[in-house]
Design the sequence.
């Protein structure tokens, strides 16, 4: 079983990963061939889908503890499925890592637009990190009810930012 996680969206920002897990985790750049990431119609984070010929850039975190996996699984939207995918690290290693992938049955929720890291960073990163810290505090103190989790992540952008990309 792999202890590595390939991140392609918000979790590839070290400050988001630290806010979610409470840990500053080491990472290395990586790519997943045969996968593409798209924007959701109503969310600010992407969905990863299998797509022939596609390439998704991201980061790999390794040596994740059982507690860290529990936090990540609770953090991630329940529509994702954690799967093992082959990733190519920038240091030349090819490994199998977990990734949160959107099942075919849920792909209708995606737009046709590619998710853009720069767009997220410019428009949403600071506020998102703050919400991730709230998640971590809530989940590690008394637990976070599922309904409350959805209000943290199922966000709509203000009208002036809704098309920023």
Sequence:
């Amino acid at each position: 079983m792999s202890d590595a996680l390939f991140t392609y969206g918000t979790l590839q920002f070290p400050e988001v990963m630290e806010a979610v897990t409470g840990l500053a985790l080491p990472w290395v750049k990586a790519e997943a061939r045969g996968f593409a990431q798209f924007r959701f119609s109503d969310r600010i984070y992407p969905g990863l889908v299998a797509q022939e010929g596609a390439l998704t850039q991201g980061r790999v975190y390794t040596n994740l503890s059982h507690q860290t996996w529990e936090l990540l699984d609770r953090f991630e939207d329940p529509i994702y499925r954690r799967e093992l995918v082959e990733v190519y690290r920038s240091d030349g290693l090819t490994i199998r890592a977990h990734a949160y992938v959107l099942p075919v049955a849920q792909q209708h929720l995606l737009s046709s637009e590619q998710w853009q890291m720069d767009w997220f960073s410019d428009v949403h990163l600071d506020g998102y990190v703050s919400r991730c810290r709230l998640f971590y505090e809530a989940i590690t103190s008394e637990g976070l009810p599922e309904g409350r989790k959805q209000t943290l992540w199922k966000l709509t952008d203000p009208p002036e930012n809704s098309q920023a990309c």
